[in-house]
Amino acid sequence: MSNLREDGLRVFREMLPGTLPDGDVDFGGGFAPELMDIGVESVFGRLWTREGLSRRDRSLVTLGILIALRATEEMDAHFRIARQNGLSEEELAEVIYHASGYAGFPAAATARTIAAKALSRD
């Protein structure tokens, strides 16, 4: 059986290069200190490593969900991950356009603002 933490850290580093240091990572204490560990293991270690969808396709699905949820804190990283996973700026704009019809104009406008900032750092 694979180590979900190791797999999660590897995938996270591949999709957001330079964000995490090498080796194991202590995400710190504070309130709900295990939340990042849960995310690394279950989201990046279990979901992003599954066969069935490419990372590119997973990025499309993830962005659509995040836009619909107006999950602004997560969108920034996931627009950068989507670029790393092969989506062009034109394709990311189409995701936002398409989301406007299903998630609403305000959600799409917020996503546009976040994408512009996130992609300007590439």
TrEMBL record:
Specify the superkingdom: Bacteria
Q: Which InterPro entries match?
A: 4CMD/NDH-1_regulator, AhpD-like, CMD-like
What are the TM regions of this chain, as residue ranges? none
Which ranges carry the Carboxymuconolactone decarboxylase-like domain? Answer: 33-116
A single Gene Ontology MF term assigned here is: peroxiredoxin activity
- Put simply, this protein is called Carboxymuconolactone decarboxylase
Species the sequence originates in: Mycolicibacterium aromaticivorans JS19b1 = JCM 16368
